[in-house]
C-alpha cells in the first residue's frame, strides 16, 4: 500500500476525468557504464536466477551485466568449437552448463530491459578449469627438474595457446554481440612459469631476463590484438596497467582493489595515462559487514581524485561485483538487494543533487516495492 500511496500523491484526476500529474521529471544518468558482475564459475547460477537478477537490475537502472562466466573452479560455458571445455571443466556436463541457447536467452532478456551483456574470459590466470578440456594449454609446473603434476597459468611460450584463444574468441565474438569483451589479466602467479624450463628458455630468447611481468605483458598484448581483429574493444583488470604492460589506448581499465587512498591514486594514474576507467573496488558486495553497509556503498564518490576535468571524463562508470565463493541461487537476491541499489543510485544521480544517505531512501523504497509486488 505504501507504493500505491506514493503514486497517488503524484497524480490526480481533473474535472473532466483525465489523469494528470503534478510534476515534471528531469532525470538522466551521471555515468554511461553502470554494471553488475555475477560469478557463475565458483557456484553455478541457474538461468532463472540470472534472469531474475536482470529484472532487478532494470529496476535500479543498471545497464551492463558483466558475466564472469568461467574461472578456476568450473567452465560452464558450452563451446561449440571446444565442447571438451564444459564437458570436462564444468561441475556437471549437462546440468551445470550454459548452452548457447541459454546465453541467447540471457542476452535477449537483458536487451529488452536496456542491459548489455559483457562476457569475461579471464586469462592467463584463473584458468585451471580450462586445462581439463584443453590439454597442453596450461603451464606444467616443475619440482626441480621433473614435472610436479600440477599446472599454472596459460603457457605463454606456446604458439598453440594463441591459436586456441583465437578460435575460442572468434566463437565468443559471434555469440556475444556486445562490442566489448573482458579479458581479465588479474592475479597471475608467476611461480609455475619460473619453475618451467621451457618458459625460462622462452624468456631468455625474448630478452625478458627474469622479469615475468614482461612475459605477462607479451601474453596480454597478443590477446588484446586478437580481440581487435574481431572488432572488439578489450577491458582488463588494473593489474595489466600496474605491471607496466603495453596497452592499446582504446583499452578500458577496471579497478578492483586497493585502500581508498590507493584507489584515488590509481584513478589519477590511469586517467593521466589517457585510459578510460571502470571503478569496482568500493563495491565488492560479496563482502558482508555487520550492520547497514549500504551507506558505505552510497557514499562513494567516483570522481574524488586528483586530476583535470579531462581525466575525470575518462571515468566511464562503475560496477557492483558479486563474487561467488559463498553465493549461489539460494542467497543471491538477499545478498544483492537492496545493497546494490545504493551503488546504482550513486552511478545514476549527480552528487550535487544527492549528497547524503537520506537522499537514497526514495529510490531504495521504490525498489523494495517493485521487488515485492
UniProtKB/TrEMBL annotation:
Gene3D superfamilies given in the database record: Glycosidases
Gene Ontology CC, one term: lysosome
Function, as annotated: Hydrolyzes the non-reducing end N-acetyl-D-hexosamine and/or sulfated N-acetyl-D-hexosamine of glycoconjugates, such as the oligosaccharide moieties from proteins and neutral glycolipids, or from certain mucopolysaccharides. The isozyme S is as active as the isozyme A on the anionic bis-sulfated glycans, the chondroitin-6-sulfate trisaccharide (C6S-3), and the dermatan sulfate pentasaccharide, and the sulfated glycosphingolipid SM2. The isozyme B does not hydrolyze each of these substrates, however hydrolyzes efficiently neutral oligosaccharide.
One matching Pfam family: Glyco_hydro_20
Keyword field contains Disulfide bond: no
Catalytic EC class: hydrolase
Active site: 187
GO biological process, one term: carbohydrate metabolic process
Keyword line: Glycoprotein, Glycosidase, Hydrolase, Signal, Zymogen
EC numbers: 3.2.1.52
Cross-referenced CDD domains: GH20_HexA_HexB-like
Ranges of residues in domain Glycoside hydrolase family 20 catalytic: 31-350
Lineage of source species: Eukaryota, Metazoa, Chordata, Craniata, Vertebrata
Subunit field text: There are 3 beta-hexosaminidase isozymes: isozyme A (hexosaminidase A) is a heterodimer composed of one subunit alpha and one subunit beta (chain A and B); isozyme B (hexosaminidase B) is a homodimer of two beta subunits (two chains A and B); isozyme S (hexosaminidase S) is a homodimer of two alpha subunits. The composition of the dimer (isozyme A versus isozyme S) has a significant effect on the substrate specificity of the alpha subunit active site.
InterPro entries recorded: Beta_hexosaminidase_sua/sub, GH, Glyco_hydro_20_cat
UniProt keyword Signal, yes or no: yes
Reaction catalysis annotation: N-acetyl-beta-D-galactosaminyl-(1->4)-beta-D-3-sulfogalactosyl-(1->4)-beta-D-glucosyl-(1<->1')-ceramide + H2O = a beta-D-3-sulfogalactosyl-(1->4)-beta-D-glucosyl-(1<->1')-ceramide + N-acetyl-beta-D-galactosamine; a ganglioside GM2 + H2O = a ganglioside GM3 + N-acetyl-beta-D-galactosamine; Hydrolysis of terminal non-reducing N-acetyl-D-hexosamine residues in N-acetyl-beta-D-hexosaminides; a ganglioside GM2 (d18:1(4E)) + H2O = a ganglioside GM3 (d18:1(4E)) + N-acetyl-beta-D-galactosamine
Protein name in the entry: Beta-hexosaminidase subunit alpha
Species: Esox lucius (Northern pike)
Family assignment from sequence similarity: Belongs to the glycosyl hydrolase 20 family.
SUPFAM superfamilies the record matches: (Trans)glycosidases
Amino acid at each position: 500500500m505504501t507504493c500505491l500511496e506514493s503514486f497517488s500523491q503524484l497524480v490526480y484526476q481533473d474535472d473532466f476525468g483525465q489523469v494528470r500529474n503534478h510534476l515534471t521529471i528531469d532525470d538522466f544518468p551521471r555515468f554511461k557504464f553502470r554494471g553488475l558482475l555475477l560469478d557463475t564459475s565458483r557456484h553455478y547460477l541457474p538461468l532463472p536466477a540470472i534472469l531474475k537478477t536482470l529484472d532487478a537490475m532494470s529496476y535500479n537502472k543498471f545497464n551492463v551485466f558483466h558475466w564472469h562466466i568461467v574461472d578456476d573452479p568450473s567452465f560452464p560455458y558450452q563451446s561449440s568449437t571446444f565442447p571438451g571445455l564444459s564437458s570436462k571443466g564444468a561441475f556437471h556436463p549437462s546440468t551445470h552448463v550454459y548452452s548457447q541457447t541459454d546465453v541467447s536467452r540471457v542476452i535477449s532478456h537483458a536487451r529488452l530491459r536496456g542491459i548489455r551483456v559483457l562476457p569475461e574470459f579471464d586469462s592467463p590466470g584463473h584458468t585451471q578449469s580450462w586445462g581439463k578440456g584443453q590439454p597442453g594449454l596450461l603451464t606444467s609446473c616443475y619440482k626441480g627438474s621433473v614435472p610436479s603434476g600440477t599446472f599454472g597459468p596459460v603457457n605463454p611460450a606456446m604458439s598453440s595457446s594463441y591459436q586456441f584463444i583465437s578460435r575460442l574468441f572468434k566463437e565468443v565474438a559471434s555469440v556475444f554481440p556486445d562490442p566489448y569483451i573482458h579479458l581479465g589479466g588479474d592475479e597471475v602467479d608467476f611461480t609455475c612459469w619460473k619453475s618451467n624450463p621451457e618458459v625460462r628458455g622462452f624468456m631468455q630468447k625474448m630478452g625478458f631476463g627474469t622479469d615475468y611481468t614482461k612475459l605477462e605483458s607479451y601474453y596480454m598484448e597478443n590477446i588484446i590484438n586478437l580481440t581487435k581483429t574481431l572488432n572488439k574493444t578489450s577491458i582488463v583488470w588494473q593489474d595489466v596497467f600496474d605491471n607496466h604492460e603495453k596497452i592499446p589506448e582504446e583499452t578500458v581499465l577496471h579497478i578492483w582493489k586497493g585502500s581508498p587512498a590507493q584507489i584515488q591514486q590509481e584513478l589519477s594514474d590511469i586517467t593521466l595515462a589517457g585510459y578510460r576507467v571502470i571503478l569496482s573496488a568500493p563495491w565488492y558486495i560479496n563482502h558482508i559487514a555487520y550492520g547497514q553497509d549500504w551507506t558505505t556503498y552510497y557514499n562513494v564518490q567516483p570522481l574524488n581524485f586528483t586530476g583535470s576535468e579531462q581525466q575525470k571524463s575518462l571515468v566511464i562508470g562503475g560496477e557492483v561485483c558479486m563474487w561467488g565463493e559463498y553465493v549461489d541461487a539460494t542467497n543471491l537476491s538477499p545478498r544483492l538487494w537492496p545493497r546494490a541499489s545504493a551503488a546504482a543510485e550513486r552511478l545514476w544521480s549527480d552528487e550535487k543533487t544527492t549528497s547524503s544517505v537520506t537522499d537514497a531512501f526514495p529510490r531504495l523504497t521504490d525498489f523494495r516495492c517493485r521487488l515485492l509486488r
